[in-house]
Amino acid sequence: MTSSFRTIRAGFMPLTDCAPLVMASVLGLDEKYGVKLALSREHSWSGMRDRLVHGSLDVAHVLYGLLYGVEMGIGSRAVPMAVLMNLSRNGQAITLSRALAEQGVIDGPSLAAHMRRSRRRFTFAHTFPTGNHAMFLYYWLAAAGIDPLRDIQAVTVPPGQMASSLVAGHIDGFCAGEPWSARAVLDGAGVTAATSQDIWPDHPGKALGATAAFADANPDACRALVAALLEAGRWIDASAAHRDAAAEILASPAYVNADRELIGARLHGRYEDGLGRCWRDPDPLQFHADGAANFPWLSDGMWFMTQHRRWGLLREDPDYLAVAARVNRVALYREAALLAGVAAPAGLLRSSVLIDGRIWNGRDPQAYISSFAHGAPRPVFGHGAPQ
Amino acid sequence: MKSPPSVQRTLRIVVVNTAHGAGEQAMAAQAQRNTALRIGLLESGYDIVASLPADIFLPERIAQIQPDMIIIDSESDALDVLEHIVIATRDEPRPIVLFTDDQDRSSMDAAIDAGVSAYIVAGLQAERVKPVLDVALARFRRERRLLDELSDTRRQLADRKLVERAKGLLMAKSGLSEDQAYQKLRSMAMNRKLKLAELAQRVLDVEDLL
Asked: Which fold has domain B12-124?
């Protein structure tokens, strides 16, 4: 029988939150909707971005922030992109070195106090300059009164090297996804200072990204794929047994290539911080949450742009709402949700309270950026030398 | 290919060595590619000023060395470390050349279109390396020139708009004529050693505050 399935080449990074793509393929949910996933394990975010942009990949499991960075041309040519859905929420973490923890540094405020008493330079790592982990790290530091542009050195480190960099003393902490954060704790290299859900409960995670050109030319395939991934996310979230099964599959060298128990613990929301504290997180890594985790809120895309602007990665204010409205394919998502029997919210903006108590609701991005004490210098009226 | 004039200085190239691979075989393959690449570059007369490991000190070392070009394996996870450098130095960018196993000519063209400066196919015969690098550098320089011209033009336009608005504000608030308003802005800018557009921005900022 000849297959009429449309093949979709999908890139993913070996992280726990690539689960919906993997499970959609493994469970045959892609074929249920008439498409065939050809999964491609990528080595770096830059490499994945390049392949997505020049057409070697059709879609990708991609950092939400990175995708908007490409749209706005930060560090690379600006290319119109599309967010088809959000693949996961929560489940990233900030890990500090054991050396710091032994000196009583276990959270933002104790870190700030320690740094004020110390003379040396502190270094923190993230996974990509415009990506989610960089933005969450900077937000968390700034919330503790630490200026990420002036008070620390920020570096990009491949996630697989984070734990060894901590042990070697090359970095004092890092923000990354799983299972790398859990690995650092398990190895005794670090302690969990904050989860990403501490910083922003139910924040957006990896997006299902594509070029705008691909999304425009292939609406049926994209819609089918989103429906399949909604079902995959629903399946994973449905029960502990399903999460166990996902962890076992993800452990394979073809996917995350890590120990199944290591992946499984935080996938279930079971955390250990390396300081003796264990808990069941109320806002763990989730892939569906009855649809609440997947909607491509315009305010989510806008948040990343406000943070890019805040830190000077964007040099001018874009029309935040207009950019998010063209990148986040809400109409297509709603159609896919209908296909998969998933409820979708009626609005385009959602309201969240972040760790510093600030509310982000997508309204007045410029005022939001101006409200922060820490950010890149902007032209300011005043006596004396110009900024 | 015409040879470069003798006064032109040699390109200073940094090669980034990536130690990480999926296993012994991958590492051996990468090591082979690296060696072939370095031989090719040396034979073509390029100056490899450093062969650096893809570790956490890479950005600092690159900043110290200031190479004209950085060459790195496209399969490397250190590409993200390089991205950090790209963004940190985006006002003084350098072409980044990838090399890979991909034999497909059309994907090479596509990569160049996408902004990757060049693709070098694995196998890396010496005579292939130089022309590709020359194309990469020439293309990159032309793009930079065009982008700089474009951003200059844009900035000039934006500056002119600022000055017009500030002029209009002064005319409305102080009842000055257009010429008087312009002269006032100019002299204030000179006194404070500011560019006209910078002063105009400040005038507008105050207006926003009050």
From this structure: Rossmann fold (3.40.50)
